Amino acid sequence: MPKNVYLEAGRIVGTHGVHGELRVQPWCDSAALFTTLKTLYWDQNGEQPVSVRSRTHKNLALVKIPGVTTVQAAAALRDKMLYLHRDDLKLPEGSHFICDLIGMTVFDADSGEEYGTLTDVSATGANDVYHLLMGAREVLIPAIPPVIIETDIENGIMRIRPIRGMLE
Questions:
Q1: Which of 10, 54, 69, 70 could be cross-linked to 35 through a Cys-Cys bond (beta carbons 3.0 to 4.6 Å apart)?
Q2: What's residue 147's pLDDT?
Q3: Gyration radius of the chain's alpha carbons
Q4: CB–CB of 101/112 below 8 Å?
Q5: Interatomic CA distance for residues 68 and 34, integer angstroms
Q6: 129 close to 141: Cβ distance less than 8 angstroms
Q7: Distance between CA 167 and CA 132 in Å, rounded?
Q8: SS in 3 state form for the chain?
């Protein structure tokens, strides 16, 4: 089952220009994806929504928030986290929020053997890599269709079919 309705979208890392624009390090797949969001939140409970306008600049999002019109007002927001409502991002079929994957119990798709817990996800150039904690050791699993057979977010279960030698 999805863990949180409001997810961390990015951290304010600085200012841009003199008119109160904020530099945000997005925690989405890209700054371009972040700029599609029109409403963000100051808290993880969604009680403080804020309308935003944003654009990309290199790997950052430049965000304009109503009422923040000076560099001093923008600088006071440095290191604040911005949150998004999970329904505001439409994920492609078969994609999941990383926070929903962390903590899943991983099983063998054929034998049902429990391997361990998914502890992290790393983005690589070709595909993501899942970090599987098996007892005291960590094993890296490529997040590719031949290996990842089923991802059941509701029940916190992932079924994999390891490539020979992958878990040794």
A1: 54
A2: 96
A3: 19
A4: no
A5: 19
A6: yes
A7: 10
A8: CCCCCEEEEEEEEEEECCCCEEEEEECCCCHHHHCCCCEEECCCCCCCEEECEEEEECCEEEEECCCCCCHHHHHCCCCCEEEEEHHHCCCCCCCCCHHHHCCCEEEECCCCCEEEEEEEEEECCCCEEEEEEECCEEEEEECCCCCEEEEECCCCEEEECCCCCCCC
- Identify the weakest region by mean pLDDT among 50-64, 72-86, 88-102: 88-102
Determine the Cα–Cα distance for residues 56 and 37; give it in Å rounded to an integer.
12
Q: Is the pTM of this model over 0.90?
A: no
Give the residue from 18, 30, 2, 6 showing the smallest Cα distance to 82: 6
Q: Under a CB-based contact definition with an 8 Å cutoff, are residues 2 and 100 in contact?
A: yes
Higher pLDDT, 159 or 168: 159
Strands 157-160 and 105-108: parallel
Mean pLDDT, residues 76-97:
90
Query: How far is it, in rounded angstroms, from Cα 37 to Cα 116?
Result: 35
**Pairing between β-strand 6-16 and β-strand 81-85 as defined by DSSP bridges:** antiparallel
